[in-house]
Design a protein that fits this description.
The chain is an alpha/beta fold. It has 14 helices and 20 strands. It is 35% helix and 22% strand. Strand 13 and strand 14 form a beta hairpin. Helix 3 crosses helix 5. It starts with 15 loop residues before the first strand and ends in a 5-residue tail after the last helix. The structure holds magnesium ion (MG).
Length: 458
Amino acid sequence: MALEKLEKKYFGTNGVRGVTGVDMTPVFALGIAESFGTMIGAGKTVGIGRDTRTSGPSLSAAVRAGLTAVGCNVIDFGVVPTPCLQYLVLYHKLAGGVMITASHNPPEYNGIKIIEADGTEMGDERTIELEQTMINKKYVVADWDKVGTASDNPESRKLYIDAIVNQFPKEIGKGITVCVDPGNGPAAATTPEIFRRLGCTVHTINSEFNGHFPGRLPEPTAEGLANLSALVQSTGAAFGVAHDGDADRAIFVDEKGTFMDGNITFALLASYFCEQKKGGIIVTPVSTSGIVEAVGKKSDCSTNYTVVGSIYVARTMRELISEDKPVVIGGEGNGGVIYPKHQFCRDGGMSAATMLGVVATKKKPLSELIDELPKFTMYQVKHKTSRAKEIVKHMKEFFKDCPIDDRDGIRITKGGAWALIRPSGTEPLVRVYTESQNSAEAKEMLDTIMNEITPFLE
Ligand code: MG
C-alpha cells in the first residue's frame, strides 16, 4: 500500500497542536473537519468538544462548519474533558468525535484530537489518510440539500459523571475530604461533581473555566500545584488531585501535600483493581517504572509492555481482551490511566475517583500507602544525537546476552535492573532510562550505557 510509505505531517501521537493564530487557525481546523467528515461519510453524526482555551470557540465553530459542509451532523457538547467526549461518542453511538484541545501545552497553543467511533484516538494509518485528504483537497462538500445539521448538548456531560460514579460502591467517599485543582480547565465541571456524588466533602481551587489560566499553567507540575498542596494541608484532605488541560491525566498530592510521581500513582491505582481481579494483566509502555510490575505481582497480576504512547496501550488492551485475556488496567507513568471496565482511553476523572477508592478501601493515609510500596531508583537522561538508530543497534549487540524487548527502542533486563534506550520519534535525541531497587545497580547500568554511547553523541 502506498500509504504505508507516507509519514504524518501535522499530527503527533496525541493529535495536532500549534500556536493560536500562527499555525492553529480556523482555516486549518476547517480543513481537518472537512477531511475527517469526508472519511467517515455524509449523513453520519460526529461529537465536538473543547477545553477552555481562548481560541476554543472559534476553532470549534470552524470544525462545526467543516463537518456540516461535507454532510455530517454535529452534536456540540461544549466544554468537556477529552475522556468525556470519548465516552459520549461511545454512549451516543456516534461515528466519531473532534476534541479541540492542546492538552498540557501553554495557553497560547491549541490543537485537535480526532476520536474514532470506538472512543479511541485515531491511529497512525487513518491519521495519514486524513492528512492526505486535507493536503490533496480530496474532501467532498455536500450539495445544498445534503448539508449536515448541528445541535448543542452541554448537558450530556452528566452521563459521563454517572458512568464513573457507577463504577464505585455508593457513598464510598463518605467522611473523606478531597481537594480538586482542575487548572481552570474542563474538569471544573466534572471531577468535583464526581467526588460529591461519591459522598466526599470537596474543596476546589482554579475551578472556573478560564482560558487565560490565571492560577497555574495547564501542565500540573509540583510548582504549579503549590496552592493545591496548601489547600490539602489546611483542609485536612485525604489527597488533592489536579488535571492537565484536557483532564485525560490526573496528578496527585498526598495528605501532606507532597507531589506524587506518576509511576507511584499508577502503581497505587493499579493495586485497587488488581486486588479485585487476581491473576489479571496490566498493560503499560516499556518506559514505565518496575514499581507497577512489582505491585501487580502481589496480586499475581502480570505486566504486558507496549510501544510508548497511550493509544498503543489502549489498542493493546483491546486486542488482549478480544482474546479473552483478563486485562485489569492500562496506563503510563505520566498520570494517564485507562480502565477497561469504563472505556479505552486515559481518563483523569476516573483516576481521581479510583484514588478515592484506594484511600477508602485501605483505610490508611496516602503517604503511608506510598511508604509501603517497594522503592525503586530510576535515572532518566536524554542526549542530542542524529545517530540514535546506530546507538540502538550497537547496544543491542553489547547486551546480546541479556533479555531484550525491542518493540520500541530496546528494553534490557540485567540482574535486578532494567534499561530503556529509545530514540525520540520527533527530535534528534536518544533517551536512556535505568532502574533498579538497588540504586547502585541502576547507576552502574547508566554508567555502562553512557560509556558505550558517548562516541555517538553530539
Ligand atoms: Mg491531556
